[in-house]
Amino acid sequence: MTGNAAGLSVRNLSFSYGPRRALQDVSFTLAAGSFGALLGPNGAGKSTLFGLLTRLFTTRDGTITVAGHDLAHTPRAALAQMGVVFQQTTLDLDLSVRQNLRYFSALHGISGRDADARIDAALDRMAMRERAHERARNLNGGHRRRTEIARALLHSPRVLLLDEPTVGLDAATRAGITDHVHRLCADDGLTVLWATHLTDEVRSEDRLVILHQGRILGDGFARETMAGGDLKTAFLTLTGAPRDADPAL
Amino acid sequence: MPIPRSDAYLIALRAIVWREALRFVHQRERFIAALVRPLVWLLVFAAGFRAALGLSITPPYQTYMTYETYIVPGLCGMILLFNGMQSSLSLVYDREMGSMRLLLTAPLPRWWLLFCKLAGSTVISVLQVYAFLIIAGLFGFRVAWPGYITLLPALVVAGLMLGALGLALSSLIRQLENFAGVMNFVIFPMFFLSSALYPLWKMAEASRLLHDICAANPFTHAVELIRFALYREFNGPALLWVLLAGMAFMGLALWGYDPARGLIRRKG
What we know:
The complex is a heterodimer of chains A (249) and B (268).
Chain A: E1 6-17, E2 20-31, E3 35-39, H1 46-53, E4 63-66, E5 69-70, H2 75-80, E6 82-85, H3 97-107, H4 112-125, H5 141-152, E7 159-163, H6 171-188, E8 191-196, E9 207-212, E10 215-221, H7 222-226, H8 231-239
Parallel strand pairs in A: 3-8, 3-9, 6-7, 7-8
Antiparallel strand pairs in A: 1-2, 1-4, 4-5, 9-10
Chain B: H1 7-26, H2 28-49, H3 67-97, H4 99-104, H5 110-138, H6 145-172, H7 179-192, H8 200-206, H9 208-216, H10 218-230, H11 236-257, H12 264-267
Helix pairs in contact in B: 1-5, 2-3, 2-5, 3-5, 3-6, 3-7, 3-10, 5-6, 6-10, 6-11, 8-9, 10-11
């Protein structure tokens, strides 16, 4: 630990796929316990940034610090403080909810009664306890997402990363999950980075990082970007997209 | 949550092996296919081929043997080969489904996580071989019972080597569709250019070049290691060859999955 109060810090991060630049000098910091929305249209570089944040691949250009741990130099310490919800489902559909959570606990070195207690608590928190023995395949999209969030919290991480976690969900389920993660942030002091391309998932009090074509276009509180207007208009203006570019925004 | 303690390595190993076993149990058709494939070779192909192929006495055999007897070790190797490749298929599938991402973000060294995956697939392979040998026993193929025990370490070493090959390939395969290419360009050549179906001296009669390719094929040595172990004999050169090939394949797999240098970054 460096004693850094930052929950998540990204400094001068660049990454290329061969000749194609995917991220260019990306920097932002989320204070411990803050909710940060990473807003960007499709192809902005959000998934590449998540790949780097979760160390699926690495770059020499730039640094990432997770709860005070440098991801390049102390990857295991940094990963131990990180919970991740990927865009695609990462549940084993043939296993039950509890078996999925047990498997993940073990990957973090948690087993036996400790694992059971954590699983029960995490499922309670996500109101999923009664579905613990259902096969993941039988869950609807919203419940699968809730299971994945419960799983990401099992090892009590200090930073939670979510890569477009509401893709494919209906409006009510989206709102429920967005509310819940905001509450986690407020109640438990969790640092959250929530990647999305949907402006209605961002609240005015959230930190907002706007990513476009691999560069940071804006970094501040959402209310500052909105400047009294609505976020969708401000976002489309910033990214230079036509107003009717994406009705989902 | 601090970095997991040292027993976290074993907890993760147990969980990954258990998950592989559960996945296998859930895929009943995979289990049946794994048994039917070598049985068809044993009961149909070998019966038809018996008359065409005369085998002289070669070590570890002390006397003339039927063709069925000769190919059983090769069929054990076939099970290991197919399962090693199917595990690589599951890794490509896993990566597309995202659960490989989940595995690789665990706070354990990547080499250990990949080794756990490899150990899981090897356990499944070995169980399949014994299931096959039980059924082969019902059809009359039996060896002295200590042979089934001395066989175990040979199966583990050969299974790890072939699983490591699958692991290495999985880091190179870009898409699931390319697995058909693995079947055509890896499994079939490895199997047919080996001593699984015919002894090397027979191959030498046909072509010196083919014989040399067979002799260099790590799968040949995996089969010979199994063959000797089944008759309670130790084949040192075969073991050495299998170990060297296994280390080379594992090195390639670690390179392929290295977050800084490997190919996973290109696939994202």
